[in-house]
Write a structure and sequence with these properties.
This protein is an alpha+beta fold and 465 residues long. It has one domain. 26% of the residues lie in helices and 24% in strands. It has 13 helices and 27 strands. A seven-stranded mixed β-sheet has the order 1-2-18-19-20-17-22, with helices on both faces. A hairpin with a 2-residue loop joins strand 8 and strand 9 (82-83). Helix 11 packs across helix 12 (401-412). The longest helix has 21 residues, at 187-207. 42% of the residues are buried.
C-alpha cells in the first residue's frame, strides 16, 4: 500500500495514509500472485442515541450550559472543530462570559477580559505559539539554554521498529524521515512532562494490546494528540505545491489556529489543565505481527477532524480526539465489534481505520467549554450544546454507504469502484465474511505488499459488469 493522500467526504478534507517503505519479503513462488478475497457484507455504522445529562441553563439561541451553584465560571466559547472569539449575545463581543452563583451569564468587558488572562493557567493568545522560537507545548520563548527538539514520533518507537530512516509523506508530497520529524520544545516540557507520558505509553505498547487497553485512556489520547498536532505543526509554512515555493502554504498559521482547542487540552500533559471526562473515543484492537520490524507500523490521520489510527506491533489504536467519547458512546461500529474478534491483517487495519474515521466525521454535535481555576491549573469541562430550537436533533448525520466506501478506499489505497457496488449500494469488506462471521486473513497466506483483488474488480476485469 503506497503512501497516498485523497479527499474525505464533501468537506474537502485530506486524509494522510502512510505505510512503510521497507523491503518486501524475499520473493517466493507465489510472490507475484494476486489474491482474490471473499465477498463481505455489512453496513459500516448504526446510530444510537447519545446525550449529555445534568443540570443546565438555557443560553439564548445556543443551547444549554451546566451551572454549578455557588461559584462563578469563565465560559470559553469553542465551536465544534473551530475556536471562535465571538458567540451570540450572551457572550458579548469578546466571546467570553462568566456565570455567577445564581446562574446568570455576564459578558466580559475588555478590561475584565484583560484581567482574566492573568488568572487562567492557559490563554490562547499568550500560550499557543505557532513558530519555531517558542515551545510548541507551553509557548515559552526558547533560548540557547532552554531549547530542545521533540521527536513527533518518539525515539523509543523509532528504535523498537527500526524506523529512523523510514519516511512519512506530508500533505504536499514531501517525504521526511521519521528521525527528522521534530518540533521545537523547551527542555522542561521535553525532558520532564512529555517523558513521563512516553514512559507510560512505551511500557504499555511493549507489553501488548491488553496493556494498552488498560492504560489510562486520557494519557493514551494525549500521546496521540501530541503526534497529530506535531505533524500539523511541522507543515506550517511549507508550500502546498513544491513546484511553486512561493505559492499557497499547506497550513497557514491561521489554519493551524483552529487546533487551539486541541492545544488547550494538551496542557493536561504538563498538568496546567485538568479535564473532567475522556477527551476522545479510543479503540484498541489486536494485529498480526510481520517478521520485519519496519513492517510492524502504520499511521493514518485526517485533516478535517482530529483523528489518528496507528498499528504498532501487535497493537492497533484508533482515536477520534476531542469528541469526548461521543463516537464510542453514540455509535455501534460493526466493523470494530467484528475486529475485536480478530488479529488484524494490515489491510484489515486500513479498512477499519477508514470506517472509524468516517463514523467520527459524522458526529454533528458541538461543544462549549466551561473553565474555572483551581490553585495552579484550570478545570476544563466540555459541554455538549444543543440548539434551543431543536434540542432532540440527532447528534450524528445520516450514514451513506457510498461515502463510507470513499473513505475506506482512501485509507486502503484502493479505487472506490473496487469497494463500492453501486447497483447493490453495498461496500465490500475484508473484515467480515458473507455469512457475517469474522474473516481471518493470515499473513503467511496473504503477505504484505501483494495486490488485493476484490470480487468487484475481478468481475469488472472479466467483463461481467
Amino acid at each position: 500500500m503506497p503512501p497516498r493522500s485523497g479527499r474525505m467526504l464533501s468537506q474537502k478534507a485530506v486524509t494522510r495514509c502512510e505505510s512503510q517503505s521497507a523491503p518486501a519479503p524475499a520473493p517466493g513462488p507465489d510472490a507475484d500472485a494476486r489474491y482474490p478475497l471473499k465477498a463481505g457484507v455489512g453496513v459500516a455504522c448504526e446510530s444510537r442515541a447519545w446525550r449529555l445529562c445534568g443540570p443546565s441553563a438555557r443560553v439564548r439561541g445556543r443551547g444549554r450550559i451546566p451551572i454549578e451553584p455557588g461559584g462563578g465560571r469563565l465560559v470559553v466559547g469553542v465551536r465544534w472543530h473551530h475556536w471562535v472569539m465571538t458567540l451570540d449575545d450572551p457572550f458579548g463581543e469578546s466571546g467570553y462570559a462568566r456565570v455567577d452563583g445564581s446562574g446568570a451569564i455576564h459578558p466580559l468587558t475588555p478590561d475584565e477580559l484583560e484581567q482574566m488572562q492573568d488568572t487562567v493557567a492557559y490563554w490562547p493568545d499568550r500560550d499557543h505559539a505557532l513558530d519555531h522560537d517558542h515551545c510548541f507545548l507551553c509557548g515559552s520563548v526558547l533560548t540557547p539554554e532552554t531549547r530542545s527538539e521533540e521527536h513527533v514520533f518518539p525515539q523509543w518507537l523509532l528504535r523498537d521498529l527500526y524506523l529512523w530512516q523510514e519516511t512519512i509523506t506530508l500533505l504536499n508530497g514531501t517525504s521526511i524521515p521519521y528521525a527528522s520529524l521534530k518540533i521545537p520544545a523547551c527542555k522542561e516540557c521535553n525532558n520532564f512532562w512529555l517523558s513521563q507520558v512516553e514512559e507510560q505509553v512505551a511500557t504499555a505498547f511493549r507489553a501488548g494490546p491488553d496493556a494498552v487497553a488498560g492504560l489510562d485512556q486520557t494519557v493514551l489520547a494525549l500521546w496521540l494528540a501530541k503526534i497529530y498536532y506535531g505533524i500539523h505543526f511541522k507543515e506550517i509554512g511549507l508550500a502546498a505545491d513544491r513546484r511553486n515555493p512561493d505559492g499557497p502554504r499547506i497550513l497557514s498559521s491561521e489554519e493551524l489556529g483552529r487546533l487551539r482547542e486541541l492545544h488547550h487540552v494538551m496542557q493536561a500533559i504538563r498538568r496546567r489543565v485538568r479535564i473532567t471526562r475522556p477527551l476522545g473515543s479510543v479503540f484498541v484492537l489486536r494485529a498480526q505481527v510481520p517478521d520485519q520490524p519496519q513492517l510492524r507500523f502504520d499511521y493514518r490521520d485526517a485533516r478535517n477532524i482530529a483523528y489518528v489510527a496507528m498499528r504498532v506491533g501487535s497493537t492497533v489504536v484508533m482515536a477520534s480526539l476531542l469528541d469526548w467519547g461521543a463516537t464510542a458512546d453514540g455509535m455501534e461500529i460493526r466493523s470494530v465489534e467484528t475486529a475485536r474478534q480478530l488479529d488484524l491483517h494490515p489491510v484489515q487495519f486500513a479498512e477499519v481505520a477508514g470506517v472509524v474515521a468516517y463514523a467520527a466525521a459524522k458526529f454533528a454535535g458541538e461543544f462549549l467549554y466551561s473553565v474555572h481555576q483551581d490553585v495552579d491549573h484550570d478545570v476544563l469541562e466540555p459541554v455538549l450544546v444543543r440548539d434551543a430550537d431543536s434540542p432532540d436533533a440527532e447528534l450524528f448525520s445520516p450514514m451513506s454507504v457510498r461515502e463510507s466506501a470513499e473513505v475506506q478506499s482512501t485509507f486502503m489505497g484502493m479505487p472506490v469502484e473496487d469497494i463500492y457496488d453501486e447497483e447493490e449500494n453495498a461496500s465490500w469488506t475484508c473484515v467480515t465474511n458473507a455469512d457475517g462471521t469474522p474473516n481471518s486473513i493470515p499473513l503467511d497466506t496473504v503477505p504484505m505488499g501483494v495486490e488485493i483483488i476484490t470480487p468487484l474488480r475481478k468481475a469488472r476485469e472479466q467483463g461481467n459488469r
